[in-house]
Each structure stands twice: as structure tokens, then as C-alpha cells.
Design brief:
Length: about 325
């Protein structure tokens, strides 16, 4: 079985983009691979955050993972990055084989540096090396991610190659798995859905709030009046229909929009009903997990224990090759 690794930052409640672009695929793929899933708290430290909230966010993220059907801990470890110290050790070694130019061209660094102009810390710059360490520490071969992370996986391949060239063949080059929901736009219809842009719907958002947010979401900007025909291919609501609605409902929405037979209000109502129905069981199970923090901690502890053993084995090999 190939090894699969993926992670998510506990920077806030996970959203529909995280679900469609990552989590839903993780759940679908988990049993076909030797899978490992990680809550990357050290990565989350690269932007301003409130220390008192971090633990709660980690637990909440674990709760959503489990509520979404991730088969942890039975079939795959789920753990917190900082609980396995080898991640930062390997990241340091990768720092020593990676030219700065490789990091400077990362689009996520450029975007985040622009977004957090007052806090362009070194961690933000070397972020992809910690990500490469996450994957390569477990000799990860496949990495299911959304489109925005593809460049980081490419860099992980470069890092593996640089290490192998310098110290001898050791790491295999990982490959990304990108699926259909790989780039979900936010409610503004412009930028990708993101916690930091506030254009998102949380996976555990309550139904009333989902309805209110969708009501205010941007549609085809050229459709100003109910009587104007619209173009579903430029409407983010239609993209969401493709993920949440039946083929018949999608056809109803597309043809009704084109002919101005339905209004955006009608279209959004059906979308909201479907989204609420599909997210409701996750929300319910997540709230149940959140009410049992000790059980959550047990799952994460088990995950860290399993991963520590594997990480130490890799680091033994790295130490031997690097002369440490
Ligand atoms: P993060 O926490 O930003 O996002 C987690 C996953 O969700 C995907 N995603 C999206 N997919 C579709 N549409 C969107 N609007 C959207 N927003 C987010 C991301 O592509 C990602 O797959 N650097 C990573 C975390 C990480 C990691 C790793 C991932 C750290 N180490 C090792 C894989 C392997 C990140 O910031 O994800």
C-alpha cells in the first residue's frame, strides 16, 4: 500500500472549501492507502493568532475530521504536528539543502506576505520546508490537496531531490492528488474561499447562518434584475450546486437561470437546503465530539504515538546519511 499524507491548519473553523477540496477526498481515499492525517499547528503559528484559542481550535478541527468520517484511529493515525518533534528536526535539515530562490517564488508566500504585511516572519518564508518534512518524514507518496497547495508539493519533490543528490538516495518524490473541488471560490465569487478572507461557510455553520450567508452571496454580476437572463458558468452558486445538488436540480438551476425562468433567490434556496442537509450530520457528530474533549485527546494521543515511531525510524536514516 502506498503511503498517503495530508494536513490542515487549525487557523479557524474549517470551511466548505476545505471540505470539498480536501477532507471529503481524504475520507474517500483513506482506506485505499496507508494514510496519515495531521493537524498542522506549527504552520498555523506563521500568522497572528491567539495562544489561548489554539488548543480549542485543534480539538474542534479533530472533531470535524472525525465527524466527517475519517476512519481514525482504527485505520489511520490522526495527530497534531507539534506532538511529533521530528517534524521540525527534518525541516531544519531541509533548510540547509534548499536555495532561498525556491522559497521566494512560492505564490502562497507572496499572497500571505501581502495579506500580513506587518508580520512577514521567517516561518512564513520557510513554511513549505516544514510541509515537505511533514510528508517525507513518513515517506509519503501521495498527498491529497486543493489546487492552492500543488506548488508546495512540487517543492517537496525538489527538496527530496536536493537531499538525495547531496546525501544519497533516501526519499521518494511525493505526488499530489487533486480532485474536482480543488478550488472553491468564496461568497464574494472572486477569491478562493478562505478563513482569513471571511468569505466562507463553516462546515459546522448553523442552518440559519448558512441561509443568510448564501442570500448575500455574489452571483453572475451581469444579472442585475430578476428578468435578466444569467450565465451559470460564471456564477459561483452554480459551482456549488455541482457539489451539493442532484443532476436534475443542476439542470433546473442552469436552464432556469439562462432563461430568467427562476431568480437567484430560488436558486440559492435549493442550494441552501441541500447544503444544510449534507452538512447537518457532520455538524451534529462534531458537536458530540467537542463535548468529549478527553475522547478527542485520546484519538490524537494514539495518532502521535503511532507517528512518533515511524518518524524516529526515518530520522535514524537521515542522521546516518548526514553524519549527525
Ligand atoms: P490549509 O489548512 O490552508 O487547507 C487545508 C486543505 O484545504 C484545501 N483548501 C481548499 N480547497 C478548495 N477550495 C478552497 N477554497 C480551499 N481552501 C483550502 C487546501 O488546498 C488544503 O488541501 N499547507 C497546507 C497544510 C499542510 C499540508 C502539509 C498539506 C501542512 N503540511 C502536508 C498536505 C501535506 C495548508 O495550508 O492547508
Amino acid at each position: 500500500m502506498k503511503t498517503m499524507f495530508s494536513g490542515m491548519q487549525p487557523t479557524g473553523a474549517p470551511h466548505v472549501g476545505n471540505w470539498l477540496g480536501a477532507l471529503k477526498n481524504w475520507v474517500g481515499l483513506a482506506k485505499d492507502y496507508d494514510s496519515i492525517f495531521c493537524i498542522v499547528d506549527l504552520h498555523a503559528m506563521t500568522v497572528e493568532y491567539e495562544p489561548a484559542l489554539l488548543r480549542e481550535r485543534i480539538r474542534n478541527l479533530a472533531a470535524v475530521f472525525l465527524a466527517s468520517g475519517l476512519p481514525a484511529p482504527e485505520h489511520c493515525p490522526l495527530f497534531v504536528q507539534s506532538h511529533v518533534q521530528e517534524h521540525t528536526q527534518l525541516a531544519w535539515i531541509f533548510n540547509t539543502v534548499t536555495p532561498m530562490g525556491e522559497l521566494g517564488r512560492m505564490t502562497q508566500f507572496k499572497d500571505k506576505a501581502a495579506q500580513h504585511a506587518k508580520n512577514i516572519n521567517t516561518g512564513l518564508f520557510t513554511y513549505p520546508l516544514l510541509q515537505a518534512a511533514d510528508i517525507l518524514l513518513y515517506k509519503g507518496e501521495v498527498v491529497p490537496v486543493g489546487e492552492d497547495q500543488v506548488q508546495h508539493i512540487e517543492l517537496a519533490r525538489i527538496v527530496a531531490r536536493k537531499f538525495n543528490n547531496r546525501f544519497g538516495e533516501f526519499f521518494a518524490e511525493p505526488k499530489e492528488i487533486v480532485t474536482k473541488g480543488s478550488r472553491i471560490l468564496g461568497l464574494d465569487g472572486k477569491a478562493k474561499m478562505s478563513k482569513s478572507l471571511g468569505n466562507h461557510i463553516e462546515i459546522t455553520e448553523d442552518p440559519d447562518s448558512i441561509r443568510t450567508k448564501l442570500k448575500g452571496a455574489v452571483t453572475d454580476p451581469k444579472r442585475m434584475r430578476r428578468s435578466d437572463p444569467g450565465d451559470p458558468s460564471v456564477c459561483n452558486m452554480f459551482t456549488l450546486h455541482k457539489h451539493f445538488s442532484t443532476p436534475e436540480q443542476q439542470e433546473w438551476a442552469a436552464s432556469g437561470c439562462r432563461a430568467a425562468g427562476i431568480g437567484c433567490f430560488d436558486c440559492k434556496k435549493v442550494l441552501a437546503d441541500n447544503m444544510i442537509e449534507q452538512l447537518a450530520p457532520i455538524r451534529e457528530k462534531a458537536l458530540d465530539w467537542i463535548a468529549r474533549p478527553k475522547d478527542l485527546d485520546d484519538v490524537l494521543d494514539q495518532g502521535a504515538k503511532a507517528c512518533r515511531a515511524r518518524a524516529q525510524k526515518t530520522m535514524d536514516g537521515v542522521r546516518a546519511l548526514t553524519g549527525l
